[in-house]
Automatic annotation (TrEMBL):
It catalyses: meso-2,6-diaminopimelate + H(+) = L-lysine + CO2. Substrate binds at R276, R312, Y316, E343, Y371. Gene3D superfamilies: Alanine racemase (3.20.20.10), Lyase, Ornithine Decarboxylase, Chain A, domain 1 (2.40.37.10). This is Diaminopimelate decarboxylase. Its EC number is 4.1.1.20. The modification N6-(pyridoxal phosphate)lysine is found at K60. GO terms for molecular function: diaminopimelate decarboxylase activity; pyridoxal phosphate binding. Pathway: Amino-acid biosynthesis; L-lysine biosynthesis via DAP pathway; L-lysine from DL-2,6-diaminopimelate: step 1/1. It comes from Desulfonatronospira thiodismutans ASO3-1. GO terms for biological process: lysine biosynthetic process via diaminopimelate. The gene is lysA. Pfam families: Orn_Arg_deC_N (PF02784), Orn_DAP_Arg_deC (PF00278).
Amino acid sequence: MNFFEYRNGELYAEDISIKELVQEFDTPLYVYSAKTLRRHYEAFDSAFEGTRHMTCFSVKANSNICVLKLLGQMGAGVDIVSGGELFRALKAGIDPQKIVYSGVGKREHEIREALLSNILMFNVESRQELERINQVASEMEVQARISLRINPDVDPQTHPYISTGLKKNKFGLELEQAWESYKLARELSNIEPVGIDCHIGSQLTSVEPFLEALERIKSFYGRLQELGLDIKYLDLGGGLGITYDQEEPPHPAEFGRAVKESLKDTDLTLILEPGRVIAGNAGIMVTRVLYTKGTPSKNFVIVDAAMNDLMRPSLYGSYHRIEPVQEKSGRLYTADVVGPICETGDFLAQGRELPRLEQDDLLAVHSAGAYGFTMASQYNSRPRPAEVLVDNDQAVLARRREVYFDLLQLEEQCF
Ligand code: LLP
C-alpha cells in the first residue's frame, strides 16, 4: 500500500500532483512519499512487537539523508556497508548504537571510523577481516563488538545476482569456518563476539528460505554455547520482497509471525536489515517522453531517463510498472521504453503494453524507491536526477539535480 494514486485521471504523490512537481523540479525526477515510508517502516517494525528487536534500515537501498532522517526519527537503526554510508547515517542523526556494519571488504580506515563512532557491531565475513578489526581496535585501545556472518547455504530463489546465502557466493563464512572463527574471536584481545548474523538474499517472495536459514543458525547457536560466548544478537539480514508486477511476497506481519515462532525458545535480540520492503514502493521515477518511433519490427518510446538513472531493468532485467502520469484510454500497443544512452541494454521496459504515448507525455516508473537513485551514475556524462520527498501537501528537494559543473567538479585541471 502506497500513496501514489490517481485523482481525476492524474497521478498524485500524496496531496501533490506529479505534474506540479515536474513543473518545479523537471525530469527525470525521483519522488518519494514520506507517508509511505512511515507506513512501511511501521508495518515492518510492528511485525516484531513482543520480541526484543531492532529494525536497521539497509542504507544501500535508499541513502538520501532526508529519508534516513525520517526513518531515524521513527526509531530506526541502520545497516551500513561502507564508510560513506556510516557518514550519511551519522549526519542523519542515527544513534551509533543502532548501526550494524556488514560487507565483505571493509577497509582499515572504515573500520577505524566505525570504532571511533562506537557502532553497535561489525558483521564480519572472513577470518582475515576478524584479525584486521582486532588489530585496528587494539591500536585504538577499544573493544570491537562483532558478529560473524554465516553463509547457511540456503537457496533464496531470487535473481542470481542478489542471492547471497549459497555456498558458491562470496558472502559470510560456512559453518565449520565460522566455528573456527568464533574460537579465534574468543582469543583475540580486542574482539567481543556478541552476535550471529546471516543475510541470504534480496527480493525473497516466501518465508521458507528465511526459516530454513534460521534453523541452521539456531542449531549452530546451540553448538556455540559450548564455547561459552555471550551471544546477545541474532541478525537475520534483510531480503523481504515487494510487488513489482505479479509477485505476492508475504506481508511483513506474516514474516514477523513466522520468525518470532521460530525464535520463541531463544532470548536473543533480533536484528533485521530491511531495505526494499521499506523504500521500494515508497518512490517513483518520473520521466518525459522525448520521441516515439516505430520500426517495421518494433515500437520505441524514447524517454529522458536512462539506465544511468535507474539501472535495475538493464542489470537484472527487472520489471518496473510504467504508467502515464495523465491517465490515457484507448487501445494498447507494445513498445520498448528506452533511454538516450548509447547501448542496446539501455531500457526501462521491453515489449511493454502501453497506451499510445505522445511527445512530452510524463511517465511514472513505479517501485523505484529502493536501489533506484543509489545505483545511479553519470554514465554518458548525464547529470543525476533530483530527488524530492513529499509529505502530505509539502515537497522538499531532498537532493538537487546535478548540473554540468558537477560533472567536472572533481577532475583536476590537465594543463
Ligand atoms: N543486509 C545486507 C547484508 C544486504 O546485503 C542487503 C542487500 C540488505 C540487508 C537489504 O536487502 P533488502 O531488504 O533490500 O532486500 N541492487 C539489487 C539489490 C541488492 C541487494 C544487496 N544487499 C536490486 O536492485 O535488486
